[in-house]
Amino acid sequence: MSKIIVSVCGWCEADPEKVRFQLTTENGEEYITGTEWLELPESGDENNVGRDDYILECAGTAFATALDGEYDQVDVEVEG
Questions:
Q1: Is 15:67 a contact under the CB 8 Å cutoff?
Q2: How remote is the C-alpha of 77 from its chain's centroid?
Q3: Cβ distance 32 to 20 under 8 Å?
Q4: Backbone phi, psi, residue 47, to 5°
Q5: How far is the C-alpha of 47 from the C-alpha of 72, rounded, in Å?
Q6: Strand pairing of 68-79 and 54-56?
Q7: Cα separation of 77 and 3, whole Å?
Q8: Mind listing the pLDDT tens digit for each residue in 8-55?
Q9: Which of 8, 21, 28, 62 fits 14 for a cystine, CB–CB 3.0-4.6 Å?
Q10: Do residues 75 and 16 make contact, with C-beta atoms less than 8 angstroms apart?
Q11: How far, in Å, CA of 13 to CA of 4, rounded?
Q12: Hey, how many other C-beta atoms are within 10 angstroms of the C-beta on 53?
């Protein structure tokens, strides 16, 4: 079966209330909004988490609900 591969280069201004971040430490699955993430310190320490302890849950959601943005390049390829 063939695969469709989409390659994207661009940026977006994410809506803080519509994107979520997932904690990457061993404290279980915890999700927070972008608004909550912005309130955290840039780096965490042994007692508190920081922005660097989280990853963006879904880049697709960030682009789909973006306040602004631009695709510099979108390529579609077929494999197989």
A1: yes
A2: 24
A3: yes
A4: -105, -20
A5: 41
A6: unpaired
A7: 8
A8: 999 999 999 999 999 998 766 799 999 999 999 999 888 889 999 999
A9: 62
A10: no
A11: 27
A12: 18
